[in-house]
Please model this.
Amino acid sequence: MIIKRNIHGEQVEIELTAEEMRLAGEESSLASRAEDVLGELKELAENGKVPLTVEQLELIPEDVLKEFTLEAVSLVAHQLGKNDSYWESFWFSVDFVLTHIINWDEEFPKLLVSAAAREG
Model:
């Protein structure tokens, strides 16, 4: 994939490999989840559900808070991995979407067959 960046006032095209795109997506997703965790932590502090105040949270060094939120994201992912209802919902949703895509677009199955024939 080629992206364009403005570097020192000049448009520069940068080609990214599939691996670089995957890593960028993972980093973006991780950063987003960490922001969500931090937002939830602040909300819990505001509501007195954790033994910290928002003011105390703000005194924690940024690097320590970042490490904490990333660890929390990892633990949440681990917990979700053990949650059968999450995975049941996930696979139900995948099946639902795929079934509807295939049934919605009558040309889709033909495209799959012709792509398989080209590769085989």
Summary: The mean pLDDT is 88. Residues 18-46 form the longest helix (29 residues).
